[in-house]
Amino acid sequence: MFSVSEITVFSMTLSQAAAVFFLSLFLTEASELVFGIAVGLKRQDLYLIFLVNIITNPPAVFFFYFMMYYLSPELFFVRHDVVLILTEAAVVLTEAWFFDRYAVSVRRPLVFSFIINLFSVLSGVVIQKMSSMILLSVGTGL
């Protein structure tokens, strides 16, 4: 008999893959909306950030994991950076297009998209490093 829990996506169970997708979207939304509020964007543009992330984040996460899974393991460090840069470049360009067409308080859409996505990626890196440090300290009994 077939069970949904047996489905794997890039060597993760379906529930693990779903958790990765939702966590990525949540953290992206949180960091980019905080950034938008901090720079004083109008409410309409905050809604736009939210919607644009729903459009761009799931395909970006899928592409990233797809490429990481199917590219040669010997190239891990190179491929990680290259795949991340390619993925984020596509996201920046796509979001810049949306900001250019629909934003009311974003003056330079490409620059804004680059900065907000850089903030989001760096926030993710910091969270990842902090969680690794916490898990390491818990594991060592500190």
Description:
By secondary structure, the chain is mainly α. It has one domain (10-140). Helix content is 79%, strand content 3%. It is globular, with a radius of gyration of 17 Å. The mean pLDDT is 87.
Topology summary:
Blueprint: E1 8-9, E2 12-13, H1 14-38, H2 43-70, H3 76-102, H4 109-140
Antiparallel strand pairs: 1-2
Helix pairs in contact: 1-2, 1-4, 2-3, 3-4
| Number of DSSP helical runs | 4
For the terminal residues, how far apart are their CA atoms?
A: 46 Å
Helix vs. strand class: mainly alpha
Spatial strand arrangement across the major sheet: 1-2
Topology as a string of helices (H) and strands (E): EEHHHH
Gyration radius over CA: 17 Å
**Low-pLDDT ranges:** none
How large a portion of the residues is in β-strands, by DSSP E? under 5%
If you average the pLDDT, what whole number results? Answer: 87
Helix content: over 70%
Sheet having the most strands:
2 strands, antiparallel
Total individual domains: 1
Shape: globular
Number of strands: 2
Keywords:
79% helix, two-stranded antiparallel ribbon, globular, 142 residues, mainly alpha, 4 helices
Quick structural gist:
This protein is mainly alpha-helical and 142 residues long.
